[in-house]
Structures are given as C-alpha cells and as structure tokens.
Specification:
Largest sheet: 10 strands, mixed
C-alpha cells in the first residue's frame, strides 16, 4: 500500500505532542530538546525537566539587543553533559569487562576550533583527565599555550608534520606538556629524533597504523591500503627497530588508527579495534615496553535522523554499545596475548560537539505554486476557434479533476503542458496562451493534490505532487557559510520551526538561502524510514517573524564555511543556566561586518570608503547631488560597511 506523505490529524485537534512526533524530536534530540506547552522549542542542556531554555524567548531578547537572525546558539552545559556521558559509558564498559586499564578522551579541535568551544571542552574535561588532539601547526600553537595544567593532560598530534611542527612538539615536551606526536610517515621519525637530541629531551612517540580493515560511510577512505595517513605494519616494525637501535624503544607510547568519521555501522568499529589491538599486543611482546595508549581514533557517530539505522546520517548503535565493543575487543586480545591492558583513547569529536550548537534562521519570503487561479470565462475561451489544442486539453483536464479520474487527469495535464511549451518555442503559441496554459497546469496540479490527500491510499503517480508543488521558503542565511556539509556531502540536519508548534503546519516547503547560487538550498530532510523532499512548515503571517532551527550543527560547520557571495560568519551567542535555572548569556561574538569580509579578500575598507567619498565629491561638483545628499549617501555607505552581511530587520529610512 502506498504511503501517504502528508495527512492531517483526523477527528481531533492538533497538539504539541503531534508536533514532536512529526518532527521526530525525541528520536534525534536524545532528550536535549522538547516542545513547551505554548508550542516553542526548548533546550534542556543536561536533559533535566525544568532546566530549559526557550529558543524563541532567546531570539527575541537578542533581537532587542541588536543581534538579529541568522545566529548560532551554543549551550555550554550541553558540552559538560556530553563529556560526562562519554566518561560514564566507558566506565560502565570497563566495569562490565573487568578491564584493568583506563579510559581517556581527547577532543580533536578540527571539529570545532572556536576558542570558546575548545576552552569549554578542556575546562569541563579536567575532572576526567580528558585532553586535546591537533592536526596542524596552527592548532598545535593554540593548544600548547592553552594546556598549561599542573597535572598535564594528553595532547595527541596528528597530521603532516614539518620541521617547525616537530620542533614545537619537542619544546612543548620540555615545558612539561604530555604531548605525543603520531608518526604518519617514516621521515617524521627523523625530525623527532633530531630535535629531541638537540633539546636533550626523551620524546614520547605515537604511530598511526594503516589498517587493512575498511572504513565505512563517506569517510571509508580513512582506513585501508589507500588511506591518506599511517604506516603499513612493515613500516611500523621498521620504526620500532630504529628506536630499539638507539635505546629508545620505551619512547613508543601510543598506537593509533582512524577508521573514519560518522561510522554508521558498528561492525566496522569491531573490525578496526580488533586489528589495532592485535598490533598493540604484538608490539608489546616484541619489547615495546613503553606502550600504554591504544588510540582508536574517531568515528563515533551522531544519529542525525533518529532512525538508529545503518544509514550515513544515522548509526545502528548507541554510545554504550560503542564503548562496550571497544573495551571488550581490546580486553579480549590482551587476554589472548597475555599483555597488560592499555589506556584506551578516543578522538570522538563529532559526538561531543554536534549537539551543543544550532543555527537559527528567519524566513523572509516564499514562492508558492498553488496560488494560481483560472479565468472565469473558460467557456468563451474554449469556444474560440483559434485556441490551440494543448490549451483546450488543459481546460478539460482541470474540469475533470475527481478522485476517480485523478491519475488520468494528471497524465493529461503533464502531456498538454509539455505540448504547449513546445509549440511556444516553435512560434505557434502566443505569450497569452502560454500564460494561460501555465495557470491551468498549476491549478490542475493543486486541485489534484487536494483530491489525493483525501484518498484512503494515495496513488504512486500522485505522490510526487507534494514535492512538485512544495513552496520555496527563502531563509536569511548562506548554506555555504553555515551548513557546508549539507551542500558538499548531502549531510542531513534536523530542521524544525522553533515556535507555532501548537498549530498544525499547513504547508510543505524546500528552503532556499540568500546566495545567488542555485545550489544554495535544502531539499532533503530527515525521516525515520527515508529521506523527505519537503519540510512541513506553517503559513507565513504578514508582519510576523517565522524562525526555523537547524539542529546538531556543532561539528565542523563553523570551520568549514566559505564566503560565497561574501556572506560572513553569523552572530554566535553562548548560553547557560544559572542556579535558579534561568538562562543567561555567557558570551556574545558578533558576526562579520561587510568591511571585515571584504578584508579577507584583500579589499581595504578605508580605501573603498575614500574612493566612494571622492565619487560623491565629484557628483556634487557636477550638481548631481547636493552637499546634504552627498553626506547622507556617504553615511549610508559607511554604515553598510560596518553592518551585518545578512538581511537585517527594519532597513534604512
């Protein structure tokens, strides 16, 4: 039986519980988000009822302070909760498996390098001994300055490393940092040994193993023979022999792998961990007495669509299952090989960061295809001898719309519309006739959709009408800046109106951004069984703002964004709860101004202003502008250079 994609709630009034179900809030929200009795989305940073932050209330307060949408909201308490969840899951797995080693997480700052986020993770991770991971020299420079603890926490250094990168690592070691450079290529070992000798430091060394086990999902290339990073097992043995020749075999402290990001299949996790554990155990038996860390890398997924399935935007396992599988596999191999249990290290940045931030956008307009009306004098038009046959066929299809003939009318309308367009392109149809044909076609489609929605089972041929007739809601943001993964790799994010959820959504829409690029849109939405091509939304009300929230955007989106059409960073606001459970603004980072964005492309805002001022002066000399008008034009230009790159409410008088 065909599935009806959009049906009203029958025989009863719409409730906020219906809204939570329609947008699958519980499935992907994992207890962090709820619908309030007045139809607003509220955030529960620590999943505690009563400790909530009303998103519409926040947005309206910020607008009153001059910070209008689009904006990113971050929730610091949520970071704390995610860290605690990670710690608790591994603690339970360690207890269940009688594991003799410890667990330690490091946060890969590439996931979200914003200073406030990294500082929050590092600060809140202090109770658990959690550290940081870097993948480049700039990231390293930020972290070794930040990580000045009396009890040093682990810093793992991945990525390609040049001479200065390694020198920075060795100097940080000399300062007392617990820093481990992971050898990705054999020549990196030469740099480590060179600088260690010069500085008189006994280095701490890690090695990344190129696993034979395949990765999964979009990042399956992170593992396997063709993976970008890591050493083959033969190269790992060469590295160890070179260390042993110099009496430094105890300096090899960590073995590492990275099976991929957003692993949606637990089977891939099992394969990778089992293989890495065997490499670790065999190295210990060969005499690597200093080995104490087994770094299983990242990969812990986020269930973006809430389906808990083997789908790229989901994951078919829980955090608890992941922790138990990792601990069990390592414990089993170590027991078999009779070697000590290592400290297990994870680099699960996505799972830590995704939930803690969301994007709020405002809808600034829409385009609809179901508003066409047909002329009242169709009988007279039909009687005219010169009316073309496709137009006559469209008139007949529109009149014949009924449940019994719905599929037939749809096929007839499509065929007649195509014929009308072809005749117009050949010069045999007037512009007036083409306009009438379009109005008839879209009115027929709209009428057919109404009929189809009332049918007990919607015919498969008519199901496409929902997406064909979907509205376009124009939203004040840039996909390329704020949701680059949506555009680049078809990542799905939960999108929900943050208010009016006590009202039944009456429209279906796709979302378009403010850029001039046709790719600047979102037309794929989460669904428990499939991907939806439209989003249920409310009708726009004149004079009222309508806000959508894009959730689980805390991982990668802010640092991957580009400047398409010179739309810059949005405002970012950090929110927390005080002792009385009232929300408070902890930090505000205003978005890029037009002048700042232009400077990224080597434009000098002061020089532009001077040139524009000179142009105004010449206009005054030509008497095209008065002195007063020139001052007003110049003031406007100056204000826009200093203003937000996105659409702002109110405009200029």
């Amino acid at each position: 039986m065909a599935i009806v994609p959009f049906r009203s709630v029958l025989e009863r009034a719409w409730t906020t519980a219906d809204a939570a179900e329609r947008y699958q809030l519980a499935a992907w929200g994992k207890g962090y988000f709820t619908v309030t009795p007045n139809g607003h989305i509220a955030v529960r940073p620590e999943k505690v009822e009563g400790q909530e932050i009303d998103l519409l209330e926040v947005v309206e307060e910020l607008r009153g302070r001059g910070l209008a949408a689009p904006l990113v909201l971050r929730f610091s308490n949520m970071v704390t909760h995610r860290l605690r969840d990670m710690r608790d899951a591994f603690a339970a797995a360690i207890a269940e498996n009688s594991y003799q080693g410890r667990y330690q997480a490091v946060y890969p700052i590439k996931v979200n390098q914003q200073r406030s986020v990294v500082e929050e993770v590092y600060r809140y991770g202090s109770d658990y001994g959690f550290g940081l991971e870097v993948g480049s020299k700039p990231e390293l420079l930020a972290v070794i300055a930040m990580a000045d603890d009396p009890h040093p926490r682990l810093i793992v250094c991945n990525g390609f490393k040049d001479d200065d990168y390694i020198k920075s690592v060795i100097l940080a070691t000399k300062l007392g940092r617990a820093i481990v450079p992971v050898v990705e290529k054999l020549d990196e070992l030469d740099l480590i040994l060179k600088h260690a000798d010069r500085e008189g430091v006994r280095p701490r060394i890690g090695v990344r193993v190129k696993l034979a086990s395949e990765g999964a999902g979009r990042w399956r290339g992170s593992a396997g023979a063709k993976s970008k990073f890591g050493l083959f097992v033969g190269e790992v043995l060469t590295l160890f022999e070179r260390l042993r020749e110099r009496g430094l075999e105890d300096c090899l402290e960590l073995v590492h792998c990275h099976p991929g990001s957003q692993l949606h299949n637990i089977r891939r996790v099992k394969d990778a961990i089992g293989e890495l554990a065997h490499v670790y155990a065999e190295l210990v038996k060969l005499g690597a007495s200093g080995l104490r860390y087994l770094d299983v890398g990242g990969g812990l997924g986020v269930d973006y669509d809430g389906s808990q399935t083997n789908f790229p935007s989901s994951m078919n396992y829980t955090l608890e299952e992941y922790a138990n599988e990792v601990v069990y596999r390592v414990a089993s191999v170590c027991a078999e090989k009779e070697v000590p249990h290592p400290t297990i290290v994870t680099e699960s940045g996505r799972a830590l960061a995704a939930y803690q931030s969301l994007l709020i956008v405002n809808v600034v307009g829409r385009s609809a295809l179901d508003g066409f009306e047909v002329p009242e004098d169709l009988d007279e038009i039909q009687a005219e001898a010169e009316v073309s046959q496709p137009v006559l066929d469209l008139i007949e299809a529109n009149r014949a719309v009924s449940e019994r003939r719905a599929v037939e009318c749809y096929h007839d309308a499509i065929q007649a519309h195509e014929q009308a367009l072809n005749l117009f392109n050949l010069g045999y149809l007037t512009l007036m006739e083409r306009g009438l044909a379009e109005r008839l076609f879209w009115k027929t489609c709209s009428d057919l959709r109404g009929v189809a929605r009332r049918m007990p089972s919607m015919p498969e041929e008519l199901q496409e009408l929902e997406s064909v007739l979907a509205d376009i809601y124009f939203c004040n943001f840039s996909v390329f800046q704020s949701l680059p993964d949506s555009w680049a790799i078809d990542q799905l994010f939960p999108i929900v109106p943050i208010h009016r959820l006590d009202q039944k959504p009456s429209r279906l829409a796709v979302l378009a951004d403010m850029t001039c690029d046709s790719d600047g849109k979102i037309d794929r939405f989460i669904h428990m069984r499939d991907i939806k091509m439209t989003l249920p939304v409310h009708d726009l009300v004149a004079g009222e703002d309508y806000y959508l929230g894009v959730f689980l955007t805390g991982a990668y989106q802010e640092t991957l964004g580009d400047l398409h059409n010179l739309f810059g960073d949005t405002h970012v606001v950090h929110l927390g709860l005080d002792e009385s459970n009232a929300w408070r603004i902890e930090e505000t980072v205003e978005g890029d101004t037009a002048g700042e964005v232009l400077s990224y492309l080597q434009y000098d805002a002061d020089a532009l202003l001077a040139r524009f001022e000179a142009s105004c002066g010449r206009a005054v000399q030509r008497e095209d502008l008065s002195e007063e008008e020139a001052e007003r034009v110049l003031a406007f230009y100056r204000a826009k250079l200093e203003g937000y790159t996105y659409l702002e409410p109110g405009g200029s008088s």
